[in-house]
Amino acid sequence: MSLTVVGSIALDTVDTPWGRNEEGLGGAATYFSLAASHYTRVHLVGVVGEDFPGEHVALLQSKGIDLDGLERAPGKTFRWTGRYHRDVNHRDTLDTQLNVFAGFHPKLPEAARNAEFLFLGNIHPALQLEVLDQAKASFVALDTMNLWIHTTRDDLGKVLSRVDCLIVNDSEVKDLTGEHNVVSGAEAIRALGPQIAVIKKGEHGCLLFHDGGIFAAPAFPLRNVMDPTGAGDTFAGGFMGHIAQSGNTDAQTLRRAVVHGSVVASYACEAFGPGRLAGMTPSDITERFDAFRRLVAF
Amino acid sequence: MSLTVVGSIALDTVDTPWGRNEEGLGGAATYFSLAASHYTRVHLVGVVGEDFPGEHVALLQSKGIDLDGLERAPGKTFRWTGRYHRDVNHRDTLDTQLNVFAGFHPKLPEAARNAEFLFLGNIHPALQLEVLDQAKASFVALDTMNLWIHTTRDDLGKVLSRVDCLIVNDSEVKDLTGEHNVVSGAEAIRALGPQIAVIKKGEHGCLLFHDGGIFAAPAFPLRNVMDPTGAGDTFAGGFMGHIAQSGNTDAQTLRRAVVHGSVVASYACEAFGPGRLAGMTPSDITERFDAFRRLVAF
Fold first, then answer.
1. pLDDT class for B29, splitting at 50, 70, 90?
2. Contact A182 B201 (CB under 8 A)
3. Which chain A residues touch B207 with a CB distance below 8 Å?
4. Reported pTM
């Protein structure tokens, strides 16, 4: 079954102790789409400026991603600049230029509206509501961030009441629910609407809360983390991609989706930008999925 | 087979948002012994003062722990006072009074010397060397802390070259090896001597590095964390207890030992002091071990 994603497409400049990547392809919807494209047909809805390089469009097209919903607006593409330190778990955002993203109102073409699965990337909750009003998906997952939790609580509450799954960082759980304890936080999230909560903890893995209980997955241990930009969006892409490919949301599918998310996110961290992600083969995924089984076997 | 532990025995005063425990039974060797006593015969080597309550001695004896190596010295028992906040992952040490622990030199009675398994609790590396010179154990695990890493590096290096397993926190790995990446850090530890490295990450679980690869275990998700004091020592007690009970150190035993450590540590966090730990039944352990399997199944 097919999967629609709405979110940011960006040009990222990333500085790390190991090197610098200047104005590379970035954005949540980009990472999500490239990850999910290994599993299912993806409809990408977003906006870029007149300066968006044709090679990036070609890369997305080469992965079979439907770009009918990719709007090209007058002006410049959204830009983000960040710096990582030796401890890659912490980063500084040095600059954000919204550019054409500031005036973005998502317009879903026919195929994107009809997709059975939908991922609402981290954009203003009012825009997420606009997407929900257009889409016919039977299963919707949501990302958000501390900014929206603090500034647009009412709209965010409306979105939460209409989605099936929330995928957030552990720090966002605290901001959203006031709970320091992750189990209580997940219960509070489920009381707000989404019956499935996925709590990401970066290098510490993630927790899935669902009707079938709790599932804990470590992150895949990596010796060389080159660039963690987009790892969370990549995780969401693998997670939703596997669910859309399976066509159901039973407990086993959800748990395996978490592992698929972890697998593709681990590849994403091993190179600058989404290049490694785009270049993954089915056997790369199978190989690391099997390594994941050995990692947690006892 | 039997297991010797050398380490601190204390009276702990613990303050949390949920209550206060005044001068309760504490200390690394105490938590370790109580946890390990559910698996195997434990020889406890440590020192207490004249003020150490008889009821604590009786509790340890009731669990079958051999107290021949428990020295009673003139003066007061080691005391520790700490405070936890709503986010229980961070605590402040408010007061430490070494008292009789300051002049401690471990003397291992016959049975403690002859034990096949030995755990060197977090004490001065020079004392750990004194223990190694007395003990005949074929498998030795070690705990240490940032203080010794920074102030007694030479002695610590000698200890590391003589032990089989190091059990430390992730922050200690960075201090010991200079590596921010946990995989590189574990490799650096193994180059210092111990062929088995267990890296504890508190609520994020732990990683085991051994000849058979890497094993990742989450922490058991708890809704109510009352008092995490001693959780790391309890983990070590369950880990070493299971190994001593099994009588071998193959890959599967090591992995299951990590899960047993996680199981008993989760119980230790659910009440003030080591009371819940002492009161555990075999079916408590089996029940949570099984819950752990469900937690990571996919």
1. very high
2. no
3. 218, 221
4. 0.95
| B3-296 CATH choice from 3.30.200.20, 3.40.1190.20, 3.90.930.1, 3.30.2290.10 | 3.40.1190.20
ipTM for the predicted complex comes to: 0.94
Minimal C-alpha gap between B256 and chain A (Å): 6
Q: What whole-number distance in Å separates Cα of residue B15 and Cα of residue B93?
A: 10
d(CA A155, CA A152): 6
- The two structure tokens encoding residue A154: 């009412």
With CA atoms as reference, the chain B residue closest to A253 would be: B298
Q: How far lies A173's CA from each of A86, A145, A166, B254, in Å?
A: 26, 10, 10, 34
Both tokens of residue A68?
Answer: 């009918």
Q: Do B181 and A207 touch (CB under 8 A)?
A: no
pLDDT of residue B89: 78
Angle between helices B231-246 and B251-268 (to 10 degrees): 140
* Residue of B268, B207, B205, B61 whose CA lies nearest to A222: B207
Per CB-CB distance under 8 Å, the chain A contacts of B181 are 222-225
Angle at which helices B182-192 and B153-160 cross, to 10°: 80
pLDDT of residue A179: 94
Are A295 and B215 inside 8 Å of each other by CB? yes
Mean pLDDT of A98-113: 97
Interface test with A, best of B206, B226, B246, B298 (most A CBs within 10 A): B298
Closest-CA distance, B48 to chain A, in angstroms, reads 36
| Order of strands across the sheet that contains A42-48 | A66-72, A42-48, A3-6, A117-120, A139-142, A165-169, A196-200, A206-210, A213-217
Return the number of CB contacts < 8 Å for A and B: 84
Region A153-162: what's the mean pLDDT?
98
Distance CA A221, CA B262 (A): 19
pLDDT at B104: 97
Q: Mean per-residue pLDDT for B58-72?
A: 98
Q: Residue B135 has what pLDDT?
A: 98
What is the tens place of the pLDDT at every residue in A53-81? 999 999 999 999 999 999 999 999 999 99
Question: What is residue A88's three-state secondary structure?
Answer: coil
By the 10 Å C-beta count (0-12 exposed, 13-18 middle, 19+ buried), B194 is classed as buried
pLDDT of residue A86: 84
Q: At what angle do helices A231-246 and A251-268 cross, to 10 degrees?
A: 140
Q: Which residue of A has its CA nearest to B293?
A: A298
Tens-digit pLDDT profile for residues B88-135: 878 899 999 999 999 999 999 999 999 999 999 999 999 999 999 999
Q: What residues in chain B have their Cβ under 8 A from chain A's Cβ atoms? A: 86-88, 180-184, 201, 203-205, 207, 213-218, 221-225, 252, 255-256, 258-259, 294-298
Which pLDDT belongs to residue B87? 82
Residue B218 and residue A217: Cβ atoms within 8 Å? yes
The SS3 of residue B248 is coil
Beta carbons of A182 and B221 less than 8 Å apart: yes
β-pairing, B206-210 with B213-217? antiparallel
Structure tokens at B97: 């009074």
On the question of pLDDT at A139 being above 80, the answer is yes
User: Average pLDDT, whole number, for chain B?
Assistant: 96
Judged against a pLDDT cut of 80, whether residue A224 lies above it is answered with yes
